[in-house]
TrEMBL record:
Gene3D superfamilies for the chain: Acyl-CoA dehydrogenase/oxidase, N-terminal domain, Butyryl-CoA Dehydrogenase, subunit A, domain 2, Butyryl-CoA Dehydrogenase, subunit A, domain 3
Ranges of compositional bias, category Low complexity: 445-454
InterPro entries, alphabetized: Acyl-CoA_Oxase/DH_mid-dom_sf, AcylCo_DH-like_C, AcylCo_DH/oxidase_C, AcylCoA_DH/ox_N, AcylCoA_DH/ox_N_sf, AcylCoA_DH/oxidase_NM_dom_sf
Protein family according to the UniProt entry: Belongs to the acyl-CoA dehydrogenase family.
PANTHER family reported in the protein's UniProt record: ACYL-COA DEHYDROGENASE, ACYL-COA DEHYDROGENASE FADE28
Name this protein carries in UniProt: Acyl-CoA dehydrogenase
Domain of life of the organism encoding this protein: Bacteria
Domain Acyl-CoA dehydrogenase/oxidase N-terminal, chain residue ranges per copy: 6-119
Protein's organism: Streptomyces cacaoi
Residue ranges of the region described as Disordered: 246-265, 424-454
Gly residues compositional bias, start-end: 434-444
Length: 454
C-alpha cells in the first residue's frame, strides 16, 4: 500500500484543521455544547460546504464526494483533535451509509442530497448499550432465554419487551418502544430506528425511517459523560415509520409480501459491514483526541520549565509523555491501516478496525489522564480544557467499548481463538475454496503499512 497521503487527502486534512483552529477552542466548545442542538450550527454549515464533510463518502450523484474511509478518518482525526461538537459521527458515519446501502432508489434520492449538504442531520437509534453489538464490534451477551428463530438479533430486543417493536397497520408501519443513549437523537431531523417485526416466532430486525417531528415521538436529552457528544432518550408511542429499502409505491415493505428483499439477515449483514468502517473512523477520531490531549500536556510541561519552579519534577513527566507519544503514533498507524483495509476490502478489515479502535480508545484514556493530572495546578481554565478530553475518553469507551471486549471480538473475528468464532471462519474458508473468508475474517493478510501523518 502507498504509505503517503495523496494531495487530495492532505488538502482535506489541512482544510478541516484550518477551519477548526480559530473556531473550536475550549471556550467555543463549551458554548456550543450548551446550545439546544449541542453544536455550532454555523460551523457545521461551513464544514458541510468546504470540504463537504457530511457527504464525503456519499456517491457523487447524490451530491457527495465519493471518497472512502481513509479520507473520512483523516477528517475525523482533526475533529477529534479539536473535540468538535457536531452531528458528523451520527450523520455521516452511522446513519447515511446505511441509508445509501439499504435504502430504495426513491429514499436515496430524497434523503442523501440533503444529508450530503448538511441541511438534514440523522441519528441511528438502537436499544441502550447495544450499538457496538449491533455493529459487530462486540460479541452479543449470553442468551439466558431461548431465542426466536435465527436468534441473533437479541441486541435489538429479541422480539420481547424492550427495544422498539414494529407493527403493520393496514398500509403503514407503527413503532412502539424506546431507545436510550442515542447519539444526537435529540436534534436530528431524521431517525434511523432498529425495530423488531413479525411477532415472537418470526421476529427479525428491520430499519425504519422516522421524521424527527413525527407525532407520538418524545425526545429528551440525557446527561452524558462527554459534554461534546450529546445523547438522547427516544420514546415512540404509535409513531409512523417508513421501512428502509421498501418500495413504497408497491407492496409497502411488508416482510410477508413476495418481492420484499429487506430481511433481518440483510440488515444484520449491512450493520456488520458498516461496523468495520465505523470502527476505523472512530479509531482515527480517538487518536486525534489523544494527540490534542498530549499536545496540551506537553505545553503545560514546557510552561512549567520556563517558570520559576524547579525543572527536576518534570523530568519524570517528560519520560511518561514520551511513552504516551510512542503509543499515540502506534495507534495512529493502526487507525490509518484499518481505514486502508476497509477501503481495499481486504479480509483483515474487521479484525484490523476492531483492534485499531481498542488501541485508539486506550491511548486516548492514557493521554487524557496525563493532561488532567498536569493541569490540576494550571488554573481553572486549563483544568476544564483537559477535563473535556477526559470526558471524551470516558464517553467514547462507554458508548463503543469496553476496550477488552473490542480486542476479544477482533481476535475472534481474526480466528485467533478456538471455538465458535474459529470454527465459523474455518467453515467460511472451506466454502470459499480456501481463498479466505469474508471481510473481517481470516485469510491472506495484506501488507502492513501506515500513511504518513503530518
Amino acid at each position: 500500500m502507498d504509505t503517503a497521503l495523496s494531495e487530495e487527502q492532505d488538502a482535506i486534512r489541512r482544510t478541516v484543521r484550518a477551519q477548526l483552529a480559530h473556531r473550536c477552542g475550549p471556550d467555543e466548545v463549551r458554548s456550543a455544547t450548551r446550545t439546544g442542538p449541542g453544536y455550532d450550527t454555523a460551523l457545521w454549515q461551513a464544514l458541510a460546504q468546504r470540504p463537504g464533510l457530511p457527504g464525503l463518502t456519499l456517491p457523487e450523484r447524490y451530491g457527495g464526494a465519493g471518497r472512502g474511509a481513509t479520507e473520512l478518518a483523516l477528517a475525523l482525526q482533526e475533529t477529534g483533535r479539536a473535540l468538535l461538537p457536531s452531528p458528523l459521527l451520527a450523520t455521516a458515519v452511522l446513519a447515511a451509509p446505511l441509508i445509501d446501502g439499504l435504502g430504495s432508489d426513491t429514499q436515496r434520492a430524497r434523503l442523501l442530497p440533503r444529508l450530503a449538504s448538511g441541511e438534514l442531520t440523522a441519528a441511528f437509534a438502537v436499544p441502550s448499550g447495544s450499538l457496538p453489538v449491533a455493529l459487530g464490534l462486540l460479541d452479543p451477551p449470553p442468551a439466558h432465554l431461548p431465542q426466536a428463530a435465527g436468534g441473533s438479533g437479541d441486541w435489538a430486543g429479541g422480539g420481547r419487551a424492550g427495544g422498539v417493536q414494529a407493527v403493520r397497520d393496514g398500509g403503514e408501519w407503527r413503532l412502539y418502544g424506546e431507545c436510550a443513549q442515542v447519539l444526537d437523537g435529540h436534534s436530528a431531523g431524521l431517525l434511523l430506528v432498529a425495530a423488531h417485526a413479525g411477532g415472537f416466532v418470526r421476529s427479525r430486525t428491520l430499519l425504519f425511517l422516522v421524521d424527527g417531528d413525527a407525532p407520538g415521538l418524545v425526545r429528551r436529552r440525557q446527561e452524558a459523560l462527554d459534554e461534546t457528544r450529546p445523547l438522547a432518550r427516544l420514546e415512540m408511542r404509535d409513531v409512523a415509520g417508513e421501512l428502509l429499502g421498501a418500495d413504497t409505491v408497491g407492496n409497502g415493505g411488508d416482510p410477508g409480501d413476495p418481492g420484499d428483499t429487506v430481511g433481518g439477515e440483510d440488515v444484520r449483514g449491512a450493520l456488520a459491514g458498516a461496523g468495520h468502517r465505523v470502527a476505523a473512523v472512530l479509531a482515527a477520531e480517538a487518536v486525534g483526541a489523544a494527540e490534542g490531549a498530549l499536545n496540551r500536556a506537553v505545553r503545560r510541561v514546557g510552561s512549567g520549565e520556563r517558570g520559576d519552579g524547579p525543572a527536576g519534577p518534570f523530568a519524570a513527566v517528560r519520560h511518561r509523555l514520551a511513552e504516551v507519544h510512542v503509543q499515540v503514533r502506534a495507534a495512529r498507524s493502526a487507525a490509518h491501516h484499518a481505514a486502508w483495509a476497509v477501503d481495499a476490502g481486504t479480509a483483515e478489515a474487521g479484525a484490523a478496525s476492531g483492534t485499531a479502535l481498542a488501541h485508539g480508545l486506550e491511548v486516548l484514556r492514557l493521554a487524557a489522564g496525563e493532561a488532567v493530572q498536569l493541569h490540576e495546578e494550571g488554573g481553572v481554565g486549563e483544568e476544564d480544557a483537559a477535563q473535556l478530553y477526559f470526558g471524551r475518553a470516558a464517553g467514547s469507551e462507554a458508548l463503543f467499548g469496553p476496550v477488552h471486549g473490542l480486542r476479544s471480538r477482533a481476535a475472534g473475528v481474526a480466528g485467533l481463538f478456538t471455538g465458535s468464532a474459529g470454527e465459523e471462519n474455518a467453515t467460511a474458508a472451506e466454502e470459499n475454496g480456501g481463498r479466505g473468508v469474508a471481510a473481517g475474517g481470516g485469510g491472506p493478510r495484506a501488507p502492513r503499512g501506515t500513511p504518513a501523518a503530518r
